TrEMBL record:
Family recorded in the similarity comment: Belongs to the zinc-containing alcohol dehydrogenase family.
Listed cofactors: Zn(2+)
SUPFAM superfamilies, alphabetized: GroES-like, NAD(P)-binding Rossmann-fold domains
Name by which UniProt lists this protein: L-iditol 2-dehydrogenase
Superkingdom, taxonomy of origin: Bacteria
GO molecular function term, any single one: zinc ion binding
UniProt KW Metal-binding keyword: yes
Amino acid sequence: MKALNLYGPRDLRYEETAKPVLEDSKEVIIKVKVVGICGSDIHRYAKLGPYIAGMTWGHEFSGEIVAVGSEVDSLRPGDRVTACPALYCGHCESCRKGEFARCEKLTVIGARHPGAFAEYVKVPAENCVKLPDSVPYDAASMIEPTSVAIHGLYKTGIEAGDDVAVIGCGTIGLLTIQWAKIFGARHVYALDIDDAKLELAKQLGADFGVNTKDIEPHEKIFEMTGNRGVDIAVESAGSTITSAQVFSLPRKGGKVVFMGIPYGDVMVKRFYFERIVRNELSVYGSWNAISAPFPGKEWQTTVHFLQEGKIKVEPMITHRLSLAEGPATFEKIINRQGNFGKVLFYPEK
């Protein structure tokens, strides 16, 4: 089969690769219909390189079951599915408590196990989530990032009537905005330095868009909230700058949740850090999209709201490409040669 394999930073190859084979009675093989680029893929391509040289990459996907292990009775060939890409050990203290996102050996396909930038991928059967016929493969390939967004908001205990600020209007930020409105947020403030992203954020439910280029975000947010601040501030940009600024946005007793991953040291100046202490903020880290019972309610909840049309992913998709275009596409993204939102690959194309 053909696959995208990562050998090093900026060394991604479209090449012939061994097709997965069932080796465990509880595994399934999926024919990949659609697979998307995650923001973390871009950083790994540009800077970090693979965990294992030559690894087949990718973890946001949907497809059709083509083979099942002998002990799998919940799935059959022909089933339409997406799959949670996370793999947990099942033995560490966190796993024994059902806290799978905190597993000591947590990994995802595409890291140390072959991923979904390929014609076929193998996963444990328990990772699969069946799709209703009304949810197309394109949308289903984005169930994983949508689950990541709701996983983070679950941690905050968001309530109807809360005011929410979301810094960073990439995929996770735009999905978080939609979830916040579904949860009943009174006002959602979208913050970014790109006006086009802010317009899309408003299209998808944000009440206000704030361009934070060359301003202190908290000054504008406090002006707009009557000097109160927001109940919940979400960092989804993964920027070293916004990862410090986010502490200045909540009200006294407010909450901050980190969904972005800054690939650099976060230097928090005194003013921002004092907001944590003086305002008695609650600060949450959010990792992955899994909970108990595995893979977690995040997944079925996402499927439901996609089916109901209350989570909208179509406006976020900017490119639909063949898998063979992968290496050139990643180069264009990191060199900013084009307007890239969500990029989807089609292995059959």
